[in-house]
Amino acid sequence: MNYAIIAAGNGSRLAQEGVATAKPLVTIGGEPMIGRLLRIFGECGARTVNVICNSDMPEVASWLDSHAGSFPFSLRVTEKTTPSSMHSLYELSAIMDKSEPFLLTTVDTIFREERFRAMLHAMEKSLADGFDGMMGVTTLIDDEKPLYVNVDSRGEITGFHDKKDNCTYVSAGIYGLSPKSFTILSQCIERGESRMRNFQRALIAEGLRLKAFDMGDVMDVDHAEDIIKAEGMLA
Fold it and tell me: What percent of the chain stands above pLDDT 70?
């Protein structure tokens, strides 16, 4: 399985609030956020991890280069500033093995490790059962513009929505997808679409079957106060 991290944002809100550290290197629980993800992926048996980081933050690529040898996997890094997470994933797809499913997360997604491992096991089973992927979801609405996820009684995702309506869950920013998704991603780019949520909607529109996995509490680190919240959640 491919593992991938989107770390190409500019962290403008953190910078405006006085956080001088590049967002992927902000420390949570004693580890830089990107280092925490890499450690977890390694402990889960990753053979290759693909990362895209912002070319305007060379310190992130420098950190990755200096620590690459300390991880039990091959680390592939792309430096590019992109207009959206969907475009970041498209850039990552150029260096990823398109014959394997992949597990992707954004660098500022803070989750509990045991839930992540449980999702991996559930995803492997779902793929074996004929599903096309699994999305991490949460009931904790921590995002300023949450993407609501409609799930049927069998745990299958039926839609992604900007408004809550009758949805219990929101997207947790953790994506597990089969190689079929690469074609749909390319089609989204060719149509000039943007934003990861539009890619997610396209997956459903094209007939891919996705399961939802409840990750428990998950939060994004977008503001300075989120650093303290994330520390508390992990503690």
Answer: 100
- What DSSP letter does each residue of the chain carry, written as one string? -EEEEEE----HHHHHTT--S-GGG-EETTEEHHHHHHHHHHHTT-SEEEEEE-TT-HHHHHHHHHHGGGSSSEEEEEE---SSHHHHHHHHHTTS-TTS-EEEEETTEE--HHHHHHHHHHHHHHHHTT--EEEEEES---SSS--EEEE-TTSBEEEEESS-TT--EEEEEEEEE-THHHHHHHHHHHTT--SHHHHHHHHHHTT--EEEEE-SS-EE--SHHHHHHHHHHH-
pTM beyond cutoff 0.85: yes
Q: Is the pLDDT of residue 69 over 90?
A: yes
pLDDT in tens, 35-50: 999 999 999 999 999 9
Cβ atoms of 221 and 33 within 8 Å: the answer is yes
Token digits of residue 193 = 């679409």
| CA pseudo-torsion sign 1, 233, 235, 228 | positive
Residue length of the chain:
235
At residue 169, φ and ψ (nearest 5 deg) are: -110, 160
